[in-house]
Amino acid sequence: EADIYQTPRYLVIGTGKKITLECSQTMGHDKMYWYQQDPGMELHLIHYSYGVNSTEKGDLSSESTVSRIRTEHFPLTLESARPSHTSQYLCASKREGFYNEQFFGPGTRLTVL
Amino acid sequence: KNQVEQSPQSLIILEGKNCTLQCNYTVSPFSNLRWYKQDTGRGPVSLTIMTFSENTKSNGRYTATLDADTKQSSLHITASQLSDSASYICVVSAGTYKYIFGTGTRLKVLA
């Protein structure tokens, strides 16, 4: 079982609130990713990081921001949540190397009212 | 445009039966293709990975095939179990960070 954790697992908040979704891994992986997944749809990459102090935007435009101050921690922040942010957010990590797999966390299901 | 298409969208089978899921891709450059299993409310878990030169890869009751010429892959599940009920996602790696995900096939195994 992968050692990658996400909190909270479920979050229901009102419009305009600031939220931070936490993601931590204990595998020492340099690469970390955030994906957004709507029900029945494919995963879309919103942010990724190659290591400490490295962050890049993914293919799907997102109003969220990320930081990577420590190898094991890759939090995602929404400054002002909106109903359009309602979705499942999945965090993943992997070791360097094309053929190493991404390990996924259990996800955070966010609902913005 | 890089794309991964999976079929069928959903499938219902009886316990003990076999089934085959399909994945067609148009991704360039191609690095590898991986099948994931995603249980409801959980993150995906890798089942198999295949590179350009590999035709088949097995993991227990799961067998994946890859035809790089036709850009098709399949996942065959043998002697299905209730615990196989999940979404199965085909993912093609197109480089260092680029992963193209299919929408998945939702499999339901009935007793």
Salient structural properties:
heterodimer; A: 113 residues; mainly beta; 7-stranded mixed sheet; 4-stranded antiparallel sheet; 0% helix; globular; B: 111 residues; 6-stranded mixed sheet; 5-stranded antiparallel sheet; 11 strands
Note down, in words, how this protein is organized:
The complex is a heterodimer of chains A (113) and B (111). Chain A is mostly beta strands. Chain A is 0% helix and 48% strand. In chain A, the strands form 2 sheets. In chain A, strands 2, 4, 5, 6, 9, 10 and 11 form a 7-stranded mixed beta sheet that branches. Chain A has a 4-stranded antiparallel beta sheet with strand order 1-3-8-7, with no helix packed on it. The mean pLDDT of chain A is 93. Chain B is mainly β. In chain B, the strands form 2 sheets. In chain B, strands 2, 4, 5, 9, 10 and 11 form a 6-stranded mixed beta sheet that branches. A 5-stranded antiparallel beta sheet of chain B has the order 1-3-8-7-6, with no helix packed on it. The mean pLDDT of chain B is 93. The chains are: A mainly beta (113), B mainly beta (111). At the A-B interface, strand 5 and strand 9 of A face strand 5 of B.
